[in-house]
Specification:
mainly alpha; Arc Repressor Mutant, subunit A
């Protein structure tokens, strides 16, 4: 069990964190959220691997953990007086892109943002997104259509077309 779990986490960690970031978490909160979701999955890994689609199952746990965490005000982290120093290369254009995407995603409703991120960032199929959210496939398709229409009209994304 532990080898399968470790292999899964090794392959999917970055994609899960990226999904959490696109769902509206900061990078640090996304890592905490993914860690929490994966701990829950580890506790019942036999049940997770018995599911018809492991990725959809794990994403559902991730989305549920996010919903639960947003109900709470505090993530049980304490601020530190001294921050760790780190050298980061200049990533101005990447930050600008991320900000544009975050603003555009932030303007979408939570339901539209969730289906868009799960479908196109996490690269889940429409069927998998439906399983993750517990909604019909038709609902996923209509939410995707509306989300794409709203995002297409967003002025913050015009910068992406120029680059």
């Amino acid at each position: 069990m532990s080898e399968d779990y470790s292999a899964y986490v090794g392959v999917r960690w970055r994609a899960l964190v990226r999904t959490a970031v696109m769902l509206g978490c900061s990078r640090q909160d996304a890592e905490d959220l993914v860690q929490t979701a994966l701990i829950r999955c580890y506790r019942s890994w036999d049940k997770v691997t018995a599911a018809s689609d492991v990725d959809a199952y794990v994403h559902r746990v991730l989305v549920n953990c996010l919903a639960t965490s947003r109900k709470r005000r505090w993530w049980r982290e304490e601020p530190r007086v001294e921050l760790p120093e780190s050298l980061v290369p200049d990533s101005t254009s990447a930050v600008a892109l991320r900000v544009s995407l975050s603003v555009a995603l932030g303007r979408l409703s939570p339901q539209h943002r969730t289906v868009l991120v799960l479908r196109y960032v996490s690269d889940l199929s429409v069927q998998q997104v439906a399983e993750v959210l517990g909604i019909p496939v038709g609902t996923v398709k209509s939410r995707l259509s509306r989300a794409i229409a709203v995002a297409s009209a967003d002025m913050h994304l015009e910068d992406l077309h120029r680059e």
